[in-house]
Design goal:
It contains 3 helices and 5 strands; from the N terminus they run αβββαβαβ. It is of the alpha/beta class and about 140 residues long. α2 runs parallel beside α3. It is elongated.
Length: about 140
């Protein structure tokens, strides 16, 4: 329905109808308001405190411990970084491949545990697990 008189019905209306644009903008605004709280970059967590199942420790599994100082222990014997990566390559070539069970002290820098995971990936280790203490009840 055009606003005007009957006599200028042959002329074209020169105004832009803004209502559809406003509707689209309101819908986009609602979508952004809903999704912004979901995009939270900081997650408050406390590691390690949970365990969902008891792990059966097989003799062929690799038990890697990282103490609070960031020192690696391969099956309870201390190793340096270069020897650690060489042992990972040997372990990755075994068939069946052993699992790597990482026990990280909760005071250790996360960087040291991340370096373990990166070295395991480079070596080709396919199964990595984290060993934690059972949650306090």
């Amino acid at each position: 329905m055009a606003i005007g008189t009957q006599e200028d019905s042959d002329t074209m209306m020169g105004e832009i109808n803004m209502i559809p644009f406003i509707d689209v903008m309101l819908v986009l605004l609602i979508i952004f308001i809903i999704t912004v709280p979901v995009i939270k970059h900081a997650v408050n967590i406390e590691l390690p405190r949970a365990s969902n199942e008891k792990v059966v420790d097989k003799t062929e599994n690799i038990r890697l411990a990282v103490n609070a100082d960031g020192i690696y222990f391969w099956n309870d014997s201390r190793i340096d970084d270069a020897e650690f990566e060489a042992r990972l390559v040997v372990a990755a070539s075994q068939e069946p491949q052993p699992e790597l069970h990482i026990r990280g002290d909760k005071a250790v820098r996360y960087e040291r545990v991340a370096q373990v995971m990166a070295a395991a990936q480079r070596a080709g280790v396919r199964k990595i697990g984290f060993i934690t203490e059972p949650a306090a009840q």
